[in-house]
Amino acid sequence: MTTTLFTGIGELVTNDPRHDGTALGILRDAALVVDGTTIAWIGPAAQAPAADLARDLGGRAVLPGFVDSHTHLVFAGDRAGEFEARMNGNRYEAGGIRTTVAATRAASDEALTANVARLVSEMARQGTTTVEIKSGYGLTTRDEARSLAIARQFTEETTFLGAHVVPEGVTPEEYVDLVTGPMLEAAAPYARWVDVFVEDGAFDEDQARTILNAGRAKGLLPRVHANQLSEGPGVQLACELGAASADHCTHVTDRDLTALADSGTVATLLPGVEFSTRSPYPDVRRFRKAGVTVALASDCNPGSCYTSSMPFCIALAIREMGMTPAEALWSATAGGAKALRREDIGRLGIGSRADFAVLDAPSYLHLAYRPGVPLVAGTYVGGRTG
Ligand code: NIG
Ligand code: FE
To answer: N or C: which end of the chain has fewer CB within 10 A?
Structure first.
């Protein structure tokens, strides 16, 4: 196996507190050696061992690749008009999902695949090396299964979200039967996770419990769209079922926060949604005080938030949600890995996967300090440079 020595790393974020006693585990003037797809050595540049190849990064910062643990990339069309209406004062409503459902059903496999490829490559250019992708714009057995089959071409982290909204032409009861029956049967081979949008206008607590338990019986792991538009039962249900993550958590009670902390369910915050729907941001200080583990993700979708940029989400989380820069970076890397129950990503250590982003900047701080500036010089995943 060829070994490569990376030198000239001005700041190396490892997410291993043993290096400096902080969660980010920062090393300065560092070097790392990659052996094939694995990190073989990390430490001060002055002590770096020899390797077959050498690359000098010229003082740039290196961090674990971003883990975007919540996206909806399998769709056709866009809803720019809806965005304009919201910026002109209209409220976000879950019903807009049906517009994208119609466009997605009408699209060819090739068109849907090309759209996912476009967005995944857009993400990679902004430092994302792991992406979760949900279905949820098909809402028929055929369209949910093909959405997940397409998503699977890009990631192992695929989520069955047949329970996004109830489509036109069926009753909620009929639809829950479909989602927990033939649709789940067809979707399960392509999915790792099962998700439900728990909200007024989408699915209630009992329906969600039924659907998540049916998914679990098929071997899928639960995660939940919870408390996005209002306080409600989503967070408590996620905690009750041992979900890896409760996502959104825009409107949470103190009881919800206690349940998250006690169950270990990660709260995945999606600040791009609050930005794009002109909604109030959750206050991270409450989550911190309660001892909740927080992840950050983009929620990239054509309705509530059409950004693919984790740096943008980091900047928003710091500026609008009260995160420190260090917390935001941790949540976008190690936090995302926890939300996906992954040990092999979101950190850089000897034996872990070589999976990192290089910034055209001396420190990760520049991600928020220079908002909107494309600072990712490239990514490196298991021997592949992007
Ligand atoms: O996570 N909340 C439900 N689903 C998406 C929005 C989907 C849409 O508006 O098309 C979300 O925000
Ligand atoms: Fe979502």
So the answer is: N
Q: Which residues surround ligand 2, an ion (CB under 5 A)?
A: 299
Q: Which fold has domain 66-339?
A: TIM Barrel (3.20.20)
Q: Which ligand has its closest atom nearest to the C-alpha of 75?
A: 1
Ligand 1 atom nearest to 99, measured from its CA: 10
pTM: 0.98
Q: Is 95 exposed, middle or buried (0-12, 13-18, 19+ CB in 10 A)?
A: exposed
Give the CATH fold of the 3-64+347-385 domain: Urease, subunit C; domain 1 (2.30.40)
Residues enclosing ligand 1, CB less than 6 A?
72, 96-97, 100, 197, 225, 228, 273, 299, 301-304
Cβ atoms of 140 and 181 within 8 Å: the answer is no
Residue 303 class from Cβ within 10 Å (0-12 exposed, 13-18 middle, 19+ buried)?
buried
Q: What is the pLDDT of residues 302-339, one digit of tens each?
A: 999 999 999 999 999 999 999 999 999 999 999 999 99
